[in-house]
């Protein structure tokens, strides 16, 4: 209004010629353009603030829902624990007591935990005659079935490799089984890893006739082929591996701790107090990372028991057989260094067992640590020892790198499908 009064006075003072009117009209046009620009700018700012407030409200609602979900998980976990325990009590009372003779005869089976009818185990073994198994030929590309769930999902066997995040994985499986109300059995039978055919038949039978709807069975045992034993239902196999040098360093230390603290000794008595660095200096490197010094090798865990003698060797044939078994029979073999990605793949491929796995894991662990301290506090041997041992770990690293590539391919494919 002040500007208009000035313009009016100016009009009264000046001569009313045509040139003067042109300047007046131009000034009025500039004034209106400036006002219009300011008005539009203010309306944009107002609209942004409105949408920003809406977005913030939505985010707060989402955060609130997430927190509620986590609380629900905790509640369901505790309640499902009670359900699982009650169910186990009921099923364990469903059979007649097992005699000491039968316990001794089947000492390599978790009879009580699996709740298997002893009469079924004592039956004569009659191989299935109706098997028509056509696994992919070795010439076909190994990744054609990379996202397939391989086996009957009522049973998952996790043939745990020693010192591959076993504490972290054990606590996680216990928690996730409570959440989804299925059975998780961590076998207390630690050795041996290898069994003959009749023992494998009994183990396969007990896992085929357990009394639970869903089961994850964890055990230190070499892979065995159900189809080779003429069983129609092959379970789902999963596993987790670790960089061989880290795993061997962890297992070398752990085997000595067990020997000192308990009566279970898998180590030569004169080597109990030796470090891996000292062992390499005093003994041969191959002996230091052998079973005599408490070290389990990775290759036989995947090469398996179909060719038990050949798979104990470290050569190209055993390596090829291990890779073939992984491609044909394992739904997922993760790597400990990418544990969070491992949980993601399990969620996507086996949701009935691992739904909400990442949320549960992150909620129950310190984000700065993630894995259990017992799994990550590994002291590696010195550079000289590492250099000496590396040639003896040639096949271990070949298989580890093969598993790593396969696993990351799985992860990237699932991530792409998810997006």
Automatic annotation (TrEMBL):
Entry keyword set: Glycoprotein, Golgi apparatus, Membrane, Signal-anchor, Transferase, Transmembrane, Transmembrane helix
Cellular component annotations (GO), alphabetically ordered: Golgi membrane
GO molecular function: sulfotransferase activity
UniProt-annotated location(s): Golgi apparatus membrane
Transmembrane segments: 20-40
Its membrane topology: Single-pass type II membrane protein
Source domain of life: Eukaryota
Name assigned to this protein: Uncharacterized protein
């Amino acid at each position: 209004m002040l500007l208009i009064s000035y313009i009016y006075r100016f009009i009264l003072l000046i001569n009313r010629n045509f040139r003067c009117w042109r300047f007046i009209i131009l000034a009025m046009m500039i004034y209106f353009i400036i006002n219009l620009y300011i008005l539009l700018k203010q309306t944009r700012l107002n609209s942004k603030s409105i949408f920003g407030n809406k977005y913030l409200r939505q985010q707060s609602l989402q955060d609130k829902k997430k927190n509620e979900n986590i609380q629900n998980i905790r509640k369901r976990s505790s309640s499902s624990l009670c359900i699982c325990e009650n169910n186990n009590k009921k099923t364990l009372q469903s059979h007649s007591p097992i005699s000491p003779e039968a316990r001794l005869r089947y000492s390599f089976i978790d009879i009580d935990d699996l709740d298997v009818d002893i009469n079924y185990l004592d039956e004569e073994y009659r191989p299935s005659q109706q098997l028509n198994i056509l696994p992919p030929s070795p010439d076909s590309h190994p990744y054609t079935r990379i996202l397939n769930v391989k086996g009957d999902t009522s049973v998952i066997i996790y043939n745990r490799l020693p010192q591959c995040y076993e504490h972290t994985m054990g606590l996680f499986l216990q928690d996730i089984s409570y959440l989804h109300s299925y059975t998780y059995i961590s076998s207390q039978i630690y050795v041996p890893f290898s069994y003959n055919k009749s023992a494998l038949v009994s183990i396969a039978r007990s896992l085929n006739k357990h009394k639970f709807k869903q089961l994850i069975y964890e055990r230190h045992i070499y892979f065995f082929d159900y189809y080779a034993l003429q069983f129609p239902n092959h379970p789902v196999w999963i596993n987790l591996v670790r960089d061989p040098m880290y795993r061997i360093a962890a297992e070398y230390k752990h085997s000595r701790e067990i020997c000192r603290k308990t009566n279970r000794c898998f180590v030569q008595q004169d080597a109990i107090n030796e470090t891996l660095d000292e062992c390499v200096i005093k003994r041969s490197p191959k002996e230091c990372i052998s079973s005599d010094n408490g070290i389990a090798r990775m290759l036989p865990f995947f090469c398996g028991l179909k060719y038990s003698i050949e798979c104990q060797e470290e050569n190209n044939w055993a390596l090829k057989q291990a890779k073939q078994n992984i491609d044909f029979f394992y739904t997922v073999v993760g790597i400990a260094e990418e544990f969070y990605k491992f949980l993601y793949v399990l969620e996507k491929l086996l949701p009935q067992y691992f739904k909400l796995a990442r949320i549960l894991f992150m909620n129950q662990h310190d984000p700065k640590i993630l894995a259990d301290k017992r799994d990550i506090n590994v002291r590696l041997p010195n550079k000289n020892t590492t250099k000496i041992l590396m040639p003896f770990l040639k096949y271990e690293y070949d298989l580890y790198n093969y598993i790593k590539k396969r696993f990351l391919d799985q992860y990237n494919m699932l991530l792409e499908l998810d997006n």
